[in-house]
Design a protein that fits this description.
Layout (H helix, E strand, L loop, with lengths): L1 E5 L6 E8 L3 E3 L4 E3 L3 E8 L3 E3 L11 E3 L4 E10 L11 E8 L1
Antiparallel strand pairs: 1-8, 2-7, 2-9, 3-4, 4-5, 5-6, 5-8
């Protein structure tokens, strides 16, 4: 899923993200996991770069100046040999003045 995050405020902000309803977090691969699903977030510029979430020991902070837009992409991947099933998750973005 592609989406865009825009700073509509008057000052720069640092943005971090977190995902809920996953059973584990794999810091090496920068993704959240259940027994059947994996989720990761990439920042899209000239190439895609995985973004480290808030619960990483050194999370990526996307710095957005006033009016700046970031192109991001979520990947939700069914793990190999997983039967189809419904799955609900939530992601949160937090912003603080930089």
């Amino acid at each position: 899923m592609d989406f865009y995050l825009k700073n509509e405020g008057n000052m720069p902000v640092n943005v971090t993200w977190l995902a809920l309803n996953f059973t584990s977090y794999n810091e090496t691969e920068l993704q959240y996991k259940t027994s059947k699903w994996a989720l990761y977030l990439s920042k899209v510029e000239t190439s895609e770069v995985k973004v480290r979430p808030e619960n990483d020991t050194a999370p990526d902070k996307g710095n957005l100046s006033s009016g700046q837009v970031a192109h991001l992409k979520f990947y939700l991947v069914a793990l190999e040999n997983s039967p189809p099933e419904d799955f609900v998750f939530q992601t949160l973005f937090n912003s603080k003045d930089s």
